[in-house]
Amino acid sequence: MSKRYPPEVREKAVRLALERLDEYESPYAAAKAIGPMVDVHYETLRVWIKKALAEGSRPAAQPSQGLPPAEREELLRLRKEVRDLKQANEILKLASAFFARELCATRRRVDRGGVRDLSRLVVAAAG
């Protein structure tokens, strides 16, 4: 059974994977690690990454080698921290979009007489 992903999910998942590609030994390993975090099947994400790389997308540039070792280490640490925070932010955005769609779908079903919110009946009966 194939699952269709909205374009914004695809773009964010690929961007996130490309940003972190240098942390993994291959696009497959990156997709295997990042896919579950963004609720995308790892094989689907691997294909998206492969296609993005073939189209010319490249991972973020590495820090300058002209810096002293202490500054280079701090720069690498800070870049990783920023990347982690951006990743967490992207995951939260994807989750909020998912829940917004689910809430919207639930409200449409209620309007059609499908799912009903019984919480107000429970509150009324308890009162």
Automatic annotation (TrEMBL):
Gene3D superfamilies, per the entry: Winged helix-like DNA-binding domain superfamily/Winged helix DNA-binding domain
SUPFAM superfamilies reported in the protein's UniProt record: Homeodomain-like
Organism: Lentzea rhizosphaerae
UniProt name for this protein: Transposase
Family annotation (InterPro entries): Homeodomain-like_sf, Transposase_8, WH-like_DNA-bd_sf
